[in-house]
Amino acid sequence: MRAFRGAIDAGVIHQETDVHLTLDGVVVVHHDPSIQVTHGEPVTIAQRTFDQIRSLDTANGEPVERLEDVLSKLPLARWNIDAKVDEVVDPLIHVIDQAEAWDRVVLASFSEPRLRRVRHARPFASTSLGMSGIARLMGAASTASSARTWNVPGPDQGVLAAQVPLAFRGIRVVTPRFIATAHRHGLAVHVWTLNAAADIEHVRRMGVDGIITDRPTMALELARL
């Protein structure tokens, strides 16, 4: 929560986070499937109840938060939420329903099946492309083809953005042609996770629409130059 508040105080309204599911079905905000503790082995989120996880002496000193509390305590923030496991999808949808937060949430996942579940359950939901959609978008870009001919999901299916790394397994992902192909298909391009000023400046010059970073203050300063 401290990192979210710090970013918001610095002027960063758009936040990115990941969610997992506890043993008793609580959606919690955490990047990894396990939690580093001060003493002992990491604790697997899926194998503990929320009360057990909440009582942990975490290595970073921050308690693990429920997503519903984060949405409630930070009502002005807009969220990119990555569903990390299959089991979290339905509870995640329920939490967003209860918070009436669909207008400030984009759901993301590497898994196309998870994203299809979201789109089927809530056709009005905003999502990003999954890995298979990104691969098809890269194919369209590399062959100078329309994304539609490669069956890339788009705004009609509730997809707002392609969220991608600069490169993947030695293959350059973010190129001027990739960005142009996405834009013609109605998709924004968000690049993760950029923490070097040179990388941020590079993709800004190419025309990306968003940057996911662990250094929001630096990114804001660069944006103001």
Can you offer a commentary on this structure?
There is one protein chain. The protein is an alpha/beta fold and 225 residues long. The chain has 2 domains: 1-32 and 66-127, Phosphatidylinositol (PI) phosphodiesterase (TIM Barrel); 129-224, Phosphatidylinositol (PI) phosphodiesterase (TIM Barrel), CATH 3.20.20. Helices cover 36% and strands 21% of the residues. The chain is built from 9 helices and 13 strands. The strands form 3 sheets. It has a 9-stranded mixed beta sheet. Strand 3 and strand 4 (43-44) form a beta hairpin. Helix 3 (67-73) packs parallel to helix 4 (89-99) and helix 6 (131-142) packs across helix 7. The longest helix is centred in the middle third of the chain and has 12 residues, at 131-142. It is globular and about 55 Å long. The mean pLDDT is 95.
Condensed summary:
The protein is α/β, with parallel strands linked by helices.
Fold topology:
Blueprint: H1 2-9, E1 14-21, E2 27-29, E3 34-35, E4 43-44, H2 50-54, E5 65-66, H3 67-73, E6 78-83, H4 89-99, E7 105-108, H5 112-121, E8 126-128, H6 131-142, E9 159-165, E10 167-168, E11 171-172, H7 176-184, E12 188-192, H8 197-206, E13 210-211, H9 216-224
Parallel strand pairs: 1-6, 6-7, 7-8, 8-9, 9-12, 12-13
Antiparallel strand pairs: 1-2, 2-5, 3-4, 10-11
Helix pairs in contact: 3-4, 6-7
